[in-house]
């Protein structure tokens, strides 16, 4: 008898667990991204694809970006800023461990910051650490950072993916086996295919709701469409073909999130190359471009027109699109005044994304209408970086600058579009040491107006950020305030 | 009669696209370099018989101008192949068994051994993507085709009595090749040229499809297909018409090649 009872008990237990399994939501997800990271160290490469996989999921910094772009505490639970604005005292979170089990303490913070700002550092954003004079570990849970000058954006800088905290013990293998403090830990990378993460059971904060995450890499728009339609992937973050979004919107299986980005898409102009060294020519260029036609034709309506290098959702944004309204007659007149009544010939070098390839064809047609002939060449990213970004061998190019708050690049005369304006450089230097919010806002507006008035580049539109996901996936970021695919709060709805 | 039917059908199709290309020099319904974004992705209508593409360009006009691109590329590529391949083949045949013959023919084998489209991709990747580089790439691979054909055709002619007579009369090898051999391999060359022409059109469409052929704003069938790829589920007309254009042109040229071969083939002629 007792045997029978046990058997019955086992059966009902099995039935119970089966029904619970039915009720329990899915705990794994496959997320597709366009670009595969070249390696897995966010602190030594400019490739945003690294942060797209690892930011917040695997690696964390002292501060971090929230989904709305605001800076919130990360590994630093709180901090104090001295009267003169030069000393930051960070109090670290309790009980933080790296994925290898070792404790994360002030020595790791000191190591990470010193490594990033070192002479031989390979950090792609060394400017973030420029003002740091010293980093001291006061006790295991307290770090003091001293700046040479007050820096209004220091906490913002520390939130970047390039400023995450790494451990000296595991730094040697970080490019293939990253060890961080995040809610997910790295498990496997099949190059050319996918990266797997799994839940970190010992996470110090709110634990992840998913047990397993796979990032798949699909760059071809047709393959991306097919993968989502066949439900091979549960979400595609940064979907490459805007023309397919209406179909997903009409399909009840999917949800489409169209968020904002920090991606100012611009017609970059080589300011040192004649005839673009003449501001009249650049002004003519600006008036020859019909932004709305580009947004409709290249992005199928997704995108916000911009008139300067600043994100429209930023509170300090000034709408300067009126400065460069579409007026081909005015453009022709300006060209004639600049000494090019019959126009001229130049090059237009286009990287792979569809905003550039399609946008380039549209811009070429618009420029042709005012007499400017462009010779289009389609480049792969590696060629683009080599020829345009490093070699500065271009007349015009189209690219989206996706870094947050990057108007500072206009103060770098050796940056690839080579804008050299001493007043602007002084303005940026002053901004760096100003912490009064009202004054900062004033200076930022002035900066936007300066580059708009100088027609440094053709300002086209703010890139939209489309995410297509299974309708039951909750908690995805809608906007892209930085390059990140934060899955720590993502779950499946029952 | 079968040969004739192929010839007429193939010739007719070829003529349609050749005249579309010729007419496009004088007139097209809409300028293909002007975009009309407001009218993008419209199906066939009275104003646009084949519809418009994603930039609002008229697809009929694009196909007419694209025919021009395809035909020009294929024509020049076949020209390069014949221009270099035929003299090489004649020389090799005239000097049969010599070191020069070996050099020419092994060189041809070398070019033949490479997958042609891969090399074309390499050439355009190194020297940049343009219609000119596509022409050169496709042309190079036509050389061995014509060189081999010419040599094998010429070899059998060199044993003919009238060639012997010409030699006895004191004509040099170069003169015999030009006056007696070449005219008698022309039939072979015309047939092969037609086939190579259709392959050239396919190769151009393939290179343009992967972005290595003619660059915008030059219209090209291959690029029209590539552009329409992500829109095929809601705008099938954008892919259908350039696809049909490629299909019909290549089919036409192949049928015409078959027909020409039947017409030139002495055995078939005798049977008729």
Automatic annotation (TrEMBL), chain A:
Provide the GO MF annotations for this entry.
peptide transmembrane transporter activity
Q: Name one GO cellular component term.
A: ATP-binding cassette (ABC) transporter complex
Q: Which residues form the signal peptide?
A: 1-25
Assigned keywords, A-Z: Signal
Q: Which SUPFAM superfamilies match?
A: Periplasmic binding protein-like II
CDD domains hit by this protein: PBP2_NikA_DppA_OppA_like_6 (cd08494)
Domain of life according to the entry: Bacteria
Domain Solute-binding protein family, by residue range, is: 71-399
Q: Where in the cell is it found?
A: Periplasm
One short Pfam name that applies is SBP_bac_5
Enumerate the InterPro entries for this protein.
Peptide/Ni-bd (IPR030678), SBP_5 (IPR039424), SBP_5_dom (IPR000914)
| Keyword Phosphoprotein set for record | no
* UniProt keyword Signal, yes or no: yes
Q: What is one process in the GO biological process aspect for this record?
A: peptide transport
Q: Family assignment?
A: Belongs to the bacterial solute-binding protein 5 family.
> How is this protein named in the record?
Glutathione-binding protein GsiB
Q: What is the organism field in this record?
A: Thalassovita gelatinovora (Thalassobius gelatinovorus)
Automatic annotation (TrEMBL), chain B:
Name any GO cellular component annotation.
Answer: plasma membrane
Annotated TM spans: 7-28, 71-90, 110-143, 239-260
Please give the Pfam families that the UniProt record associates with this protein.
Answer: BPD_transp_1
Q: Keyword Transport on this protein?
A: yes
Q: Which UniProt keywords apply?
A: Cell membrane, Membrane, Transmembrane, Transmembrane helix, Transport
Q: How does it sit in the membrane?
A: Multi-pass membrane protein
Alphabetical list of InterPro entries matching this protein: BP-dependent_transpt_permease (IPR050366), MetI-like (IPR000515), MetI-like_sf (IPR035906)
Q: What is its main location?
A: membrane
Cite the SUPFAM superfamilies for this sequence: MetI-like
Q: Where in the cell is it found?
A: Cell membrane
Per the database record, which ranges form the ABC transmembrane type-1 domain? Answer: 67-257
Q: Which GO terms describe its biological process?
A: transmembrane transport
| Gene3D superfamilies given in the database record | MetI-like
Protein family per UniProt = Belongs to the binding-protein-dependent transport system permease family.
- What name does the UniProt record give this protein? Glutathione transport system permease protein GsiD
């Amino acid at each position: 008898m007792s045997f029978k009872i046990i058997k019955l008990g086992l059966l009902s237990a099995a039935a119970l667990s089966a029904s619970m399994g039915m009720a329990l939501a899915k705990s794994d997800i496959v997320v597709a991204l366009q670009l595969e990271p070249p390696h897995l160290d966010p602190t030594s490469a400019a490739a945003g694809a690294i942060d797209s996989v690892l930011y917040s999921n695997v690696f964390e910094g002292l501060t971090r970006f929230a989904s709305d772009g605001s800076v919130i505490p990360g590994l630093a639970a709180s901090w104090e800023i001295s009267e003169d604005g030069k000393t930051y005292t960070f109090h670290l979170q309790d009980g933080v461990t790296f994925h290898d089990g070792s404790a994360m303490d002030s020595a790791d913070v000191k190591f990470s910051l010193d490594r990033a700002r070192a002479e031989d550092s390979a950090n792609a954003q060394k400017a973030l650490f420029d003002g740091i004079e010293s980093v001291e570990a006061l006790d295991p849970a307290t770090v003091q950072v001293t700046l040479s000058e007050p820096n209004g954006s220091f906490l913002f800088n520390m939130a970047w993916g390039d400023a995450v905290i790494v451990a000296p013990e595991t730094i040697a293998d970080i490019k293939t086996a990253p060890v961080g403090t995040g809610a997910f830990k790295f498990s496997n990378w099949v190059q050319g295919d996918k990266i797997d993460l799994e839940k970190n059971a010992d996470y110090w904060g709110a634990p992840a709701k998913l047990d397993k995450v796979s990032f798949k890499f699909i760059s071809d728009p047709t393959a991306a469409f097919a993968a989502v339609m066949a439900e091979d992937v549960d979400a595609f973050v940064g979907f490459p073909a805007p023309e397919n979004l209406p179909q997903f919107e009409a399909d009840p299986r999917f949800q489409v999130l169209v968020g904002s980005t920090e991606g100012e898409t611009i017609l970059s102009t080589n300011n040192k190359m004649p005839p673009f060294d003449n501001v009249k020519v650049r002004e003519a260029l600006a008036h020859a471009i019909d932004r709305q036609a580009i947004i409709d034709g290249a992005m199928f309506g997704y995108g916000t027109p911009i008139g300067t290098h600043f994100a429209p959702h930023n509170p300090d944004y000034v709408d300067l699109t009126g400065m460069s309204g579409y007026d081909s007659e005015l453009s022709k007149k300006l060209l004639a005044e600049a000494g090019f009544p019959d126009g001229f010939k130049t090059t237009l070098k286009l990287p792979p994304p569809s905003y550039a390839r399609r946008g380039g064809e549209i811009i070429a047609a618009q420029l042709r209408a005012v007499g400017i002939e462009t010779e289009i060449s389609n480049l792969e990213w590696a060629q683009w970086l080599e020829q345009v970004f490093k070699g500065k061998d271009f007349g015009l190019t189209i690219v989206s600058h996706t870094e947050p708050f990057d108007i500072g690049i206009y103060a770098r005369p050796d940056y690839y579009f080579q804008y050299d304006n001493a007043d602007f450089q002084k303005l940026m230097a002053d901004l760096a040491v100003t912490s009064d919010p009202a004054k900062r806002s004033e200076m930022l507006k002035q900066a936007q107006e300066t580059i708009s008035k100088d027609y440094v580049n053709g300002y086209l539109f703010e890139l939209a950020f489309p995410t297509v996901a299974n309708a039951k996936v909750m908690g995805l970021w809608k906007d892209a305030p930085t390059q990140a695919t934060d899955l720590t709060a993502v779950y499946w709805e029952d | 009669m079968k040969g004739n039917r192929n010839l007429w059908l193939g010739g007719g199709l070829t003529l349609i696209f050749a005249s579309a290309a010729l007419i496009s020099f004088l007139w097209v319904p809409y300028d293909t370099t002007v975009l009309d974004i407001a009218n993008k992705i419209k199906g066939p209508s009275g104003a646009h018989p084949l519809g418009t593409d994603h930039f609002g360009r008229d697809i009929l006009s694009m196909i007419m101008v694209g025919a021009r691109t395809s035909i020009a590329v294929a024509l020049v590529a076949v020209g390069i192949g014949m221009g270099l391949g035929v003299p090489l083949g004649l020389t090799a045949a005239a000097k049969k068994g010599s070191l020069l013959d070996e050099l020419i023919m092994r060189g041809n084998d070398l070019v033949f051994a490479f997958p042609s489209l891969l090399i074309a991709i390499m050439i355009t990747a190194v020297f940049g993507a343009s219609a000119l580089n596509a022409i050169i790439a496709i042309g190079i691979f036509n050389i061995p085709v014509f060189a081999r054909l010419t040599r094998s055709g010429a070899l059998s002619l060199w044993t003919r009595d009238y060639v012997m007579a010409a030699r006895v009369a004191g004509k040099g090898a170069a003169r015999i090749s030009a006056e007696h051999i070449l005219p008698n391999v022309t039939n072979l060359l015309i047939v092969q040229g037609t086939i190579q022409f259709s392959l050239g059109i396919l190769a151009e469409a393939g290179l343009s499809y992967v972005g290595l052929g003619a660059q915008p704003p030059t219209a090209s069938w291959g690029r029209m297909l590539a552009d329409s790829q992500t829109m095929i589920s809601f705008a099938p007309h954008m892919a259908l018409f350039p696809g049909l254009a490629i299909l019909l042109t290549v089919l036409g040229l192949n049928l015409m090649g078959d027909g020409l071969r039947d017409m030139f083939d002495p055995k078939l002629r005798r049977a008729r």
